[in-house]
Specification:
alpha/beta; Rossmann fold; single chain
Length: about 290
């Protein structure tokens, strides 16, 4: 299966994306998490492209997309969502299933609110939308940063999340077999994190993450109003988002199928085969037949 590596220009920004599969098939829009990029989907794309049209962009400041400075671009999740919405419209994606992971959730669920008619189904792998999912011990220093971003101790704690050992930890923590996790994944992420100016970009998004929590009620209302069929395939050992966040989707969605996988924050690294099987079966059952 050929994966194309392409670029679209959105609001003056070059947005890199991976594309595979026939455009005549249903589209899946893959939205990546922190600190990754569409690279996290490198294996998933080839496994889904025989049945679906796959699109996986990198956000500004991530992966192979442009990285304007924080003085040139306001790094908020609202702005990331507007860029990706412009990207979706440029590519003419009128209908798609929405896959979200980590940061992909606040980006993707904003897209859902903007254009619920486009979302045929949701697949969330550790893409949180409920306060129950926030691991208190992990988020405590982040919340301190929200309280006082100018405090040097708080800032240094956030900068610590960008170090190579923490990037690796996000990939291997909670996995059954850490030696099965390819170092290519976290080393690729670290190359971007280490680019000049990227730490300020990540700090801006860490600070803005508090506004995602404020959006939770808006997303819940959209879930209740439009009832997109939702597959929750969650790494239950995630250090950021606990299994309570996975189960919480069932509060607002009548068709929310939940699977708790015995792995960490990046389920695709250890449970690719299980994830592929769940996604293919779920979408085959839920998407309209031609």
């Amino acid at each position: 299966m050929i994966v194309l590596h392409k670029t679209a220009t959105v609001n003056g920004l070059n947005i890199f994306y991976r594309e595979a599969g026939s455009k005549d098939r249903p589209t899946i829009l893959l939205l990546h998490g922190f600190p990754s990029s569409s690279h996290m989907f490198r294996n998933l794309i080839v496994r889904l492209a025989d049945s679906y049209h796959i699109i996986a962009p990198d956000y500004p400041g991530f992966g192979n997309s442009d990285q304007p400075s924080t003085t040139e671009f306001d790094y908020t999740f609202d702005n990331l969502a507007h860029v990706i919405n412009g990207f979706v419209e440029q590519l003419g994606l009128n209908k798609y299933s929405l896959y979200v992971h980590d940061y992909g959730a606040p980006v993707g669920f904003r897209l859902m609110v903007m254009h619920p008619e486009r979302v045929q189904a949701i697949i969330t792998q550790n893409g949180n939308a409920y306060e129950e999912g926030l691991i208190e011990a992990t988020f405590k220093p982040i919340m301190e940063y929200w309280r006082d971003a100018a405090d040097e101790t708080n800032r240094n704690q956030m900068l610590g999340l960008l170090k190579p050992e923490l990037t690796k930890f996000q990939y291997v923590n909670g996995t059954r077999n850490p030696e099965a996790i390819s170092p290519d994944a976290y080393k690729m992420d670290q190359l971007v994190l280490d680019q000049p100016g990227n730490s300020e970009i990540q700090l801006a998004l860490f600070y803005d993450y508090q506004n995602n929590i404020k959006q939770y009620p808006v997303w819940h209302e959209s879930f209740r109003s439009y009832q997109p069929p939702t597959l929750v395939a969650w790494g239950k050992n995630d250090i950021f988002f606990g299994p309570a966040g996975a189960l919480a989707f069932q509060k607002d969605l009548k068709d929310a199928e939940v699977h708790l996988l015995d792995t960490g924050h990046f389920p695709l690294e250890e449970d690719l085969e299980a994830s592929v099987a769940l996604i293919k079966r779920f979408l085959a059952d839920r998407l309209p037949k031609d």
